[in-house]
């Protein structure tokens, strides 16, 4: 059956211009001139007999007809992208993952061997960094990131909350004496004292006015590095109990108070483009990660909370 479709170039120009709300940025993305994008959209409008954009001084915005058309056009492009990505997956069975450094070292990497045993046909390439990558620009299949979970054009599965507690080393306690109340933490050297998590933890401990800024101390910016400094006795630090449960369990780290604070409205998420949601290697990793989360939630309840006197 012959399909009475408008020219594909005109549809591509419309979708890019609508997404960017700019003919100029659409032209940059498509490798065309701004005049060529404008011409393609004009052809499409003439074909449809309706204006898809309102031309305003220095900008454009979708008309009512354009707003109705955009979701359907976007879905069609996602379906096309998904169809071709499935073909590419069969030729390139490498799963590219990006995630945060501490999450990679402390949670994901120790489990990846089990994933590859379950899926020997899939190779894994891991980017462990805190820099944000772009699915459209970078060769990445899935990401594990922190945030609100609202990233346009993606599917996001909530994994676990961003929680943290004060941890110290036995050597630090030996030097500074036992901690009787959360206020005693303020007399210790702190690792990364400008971290906003400190304010949240002290508020959860009933000390909303506690001040940690202005101290001369180590500011490392990565939880894995903070933990190394805490283990060495450099000071008290804020760590996620799930990542360091073995050190807490065997006494290398001590959690002096059973206070675990949460970063409000933020979680760790498994994220991938909607166009990739049915790619076999993405589906396999998604199902495996979500199964791991159930096990991790059970592990949270095995971490001791009070240090021995």
From TrEMBL:
Transcription regulation listed as a keyword: yes
Lineage: superkingdom: Bacteria
GO biological process, one term: DNA-templated transcription
Domain annotation HTH lysR-type: ranges: 6-63
InterPro entries listed in its UniProt record: LysR-type_TF_proteobact-type, LysR_HTH_N, LysR_subst-bd, WH-like_DNA-bd_sf, WH_DNA-bd_sf
Annotated keywords: DNA-binding, Transcription, Transcription regulation
Gene3D superfamilies: Periplasmic binding protein-like II (3.40.190.10), Winged helix-like DNA-binding domain superfamily/Winged helix DNA-binding domain (1.10.10.10)
Thylakoid listed as a keyword: no
One MF annotation (Gene Ontology) recorded for this entry: sequence-specific DNA binding
PANTHER family the UniProt entry points to: HTH-TYPE TRANSCRIPTIONAL REGULATOR (PTHR30537), HTH-TYPE TRANSCRIPTIONAL REGULATOR TRPI (PTHR30537:SF74)
Family from the record: Belongs to the LysR transcriptional regulatory family.
Protein name: Transcriptional regulator GcvA
Organism, as annotated: Segnochrobactrum spirostomi
């Amino acid at each position: 059956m012959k399909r009475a479709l408008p020219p594909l170039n005109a549809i591509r120009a419309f979708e890019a211009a609508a997404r960017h709300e700019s003919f100029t940025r659409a032209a940059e993305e498509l490798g065309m001139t701004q005049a060529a994008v404008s011409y393609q959209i004009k052809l499409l409008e003439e074909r449809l007999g309706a204006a898809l954009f309102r031309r305003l001084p220095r900008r454009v915005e979708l008309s009512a007809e354009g707003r109705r058309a955009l979701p359907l056009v976007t879905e069609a492009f996602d379906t096309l992208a998904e169809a071709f990505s499935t073909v590419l997956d069969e030729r390139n069975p490498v799963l590219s993952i990006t995630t945060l450094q501490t999450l990679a070292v402390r949670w994901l990497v120790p489990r990846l061997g089990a994933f590859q045993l379950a899926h020997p046909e899939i190779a894994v390439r891991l980017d462990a960094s805190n820099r944000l990558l772009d699915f459209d620009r970078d060769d990445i299949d899935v990401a594990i990131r922190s945030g609100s979970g609202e990233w346009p054009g993606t599917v996001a599965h909530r994994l676990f909350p961003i929680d943290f507690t004060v941890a110290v080393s036995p050597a630090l306690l030996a030097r500074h004496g036992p901690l009787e109340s959360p206020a005693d933490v303020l007399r210790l050297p702190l690792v990364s004292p400008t971290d906003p998590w400190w304010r949240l933890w002290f508020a959860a401990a009933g000390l909303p006015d506690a001040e940690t800024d202005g101290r001369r101390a180590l500011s490392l910016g990565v939880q894995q590095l903070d933990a190394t400094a805490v283990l060495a006795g450099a000071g008290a630090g804020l760590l996620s109990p799930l990542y360091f449960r073995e050190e807490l369990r065997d006494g290398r780290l001590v959690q002096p108070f059973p206070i675990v604070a949460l970063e409000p409205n933020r979680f760790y998420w498994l994220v991938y483009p909607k166009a990739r949601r049915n790619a076999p290697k993405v589906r396999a990793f998604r199902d495996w990660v979500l199964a791991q989360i159930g096990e991790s939630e059970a592990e949270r309840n095995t971490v001791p909370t009070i240090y021995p006197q």
